[in-house]
């Protein structure tokens, strides 16, 4: 119990593959959307179980903007301009789905906070932190935010015939210039940008730097990223 209440728990990100597998299997999107309440309920029950075991500080991440994932940009390529976000080039409808998941999760975490007032339950806004990169990639030293370093080429660095580690795949010369490593997972450079947004910025609710007073390295970090309400 003593170890549990002095530990920081990162609960997730949970839900990505609950959506990835049916999306890749071409399950109708309307059907996939019905999964979200069950996914959020499972996250909630996991948090509740950890609290029952003595956890006092938990970080619960939301989902990333899946409309910016190179493989999805290739698979769900559209000729309709309105299907894309003009400021990022990401697929609008997929990002709207990520925001839907995150809205339900935020509401559920607020209910859990009221049930457990002595516990710090921190929402990590992966979506907001990642969108900083897609909106202003040059600030993070990224030249190709929507392309994979390791994959099969093409405008998004991926193809239907080759993928990272399989077939006639290609690897870029400088992974730090790419937003994605393999077409599904962010690159190290992108993860660094997300981490900065969480630890130094205001993409945690409540702020992780003020909540975790036992960690002086985090407490000393100032706010360097303006928080934007995306939902």
Structure description:
The protein has helices spanning 2-5, 16-24, 29-33, 36-52, 70-75, 92-115, 126-135, 188-199, 208-211, 216-219, and strands spanning 8-10, 57-61, 120-124, 144-148, 150-151, 170-171, 178-180, 204-205. With 231 residues, the protein is α/β, with parallel strands linked by helices. It has one domain (3-137, 186-224). The longest helix has 24 residues, at 92-115. Mean pLDDT is 91; it is low at 221-231.
| Major sheet description | 4 strands, mixed
Distance between the termini: 36 Å
Strand fraction? 5-15%
Order of SSEs: HEHHHEHHEHEEEEHEHH
Question: So how many helices?
Answer: 10
- Helix % is 40-55%
Q: Name the poorly predicted regions.
A: 221-231
Strand order of the largest sheet: 1-2-3-8
Query: What is the strand tally?
Result: 8
Taking Cα atoms only, what radius of gyration do you get, to the nearest Å? 18 Å
Query: What structural class do helix, strand and pairing data support?
Result: alpha/beta
Overall mean pLDDT stands at 91
How many domains? The number is 1
Spatial shape: globular
Break the fold down into its secondary structure elements and pairings:
Blueprint: H1 2-5, E1 8-10, H2 16-24, H3 29-33, H4 36-52, E2 57-61, H5 70-75, H6 92-115, E3 120-124, H7 126-135, E4 144-148, E5 150-151, E6 170-171, E7 178-180, H8 188-199, E8 204-205, H9 208-211, H10 216-219
Parallel strand pairs: 1-2, 2-3, 4-7
Antiparallel strand pairs: 3-8, 5-6
Helix pairs in contact: 4-6, 7-8
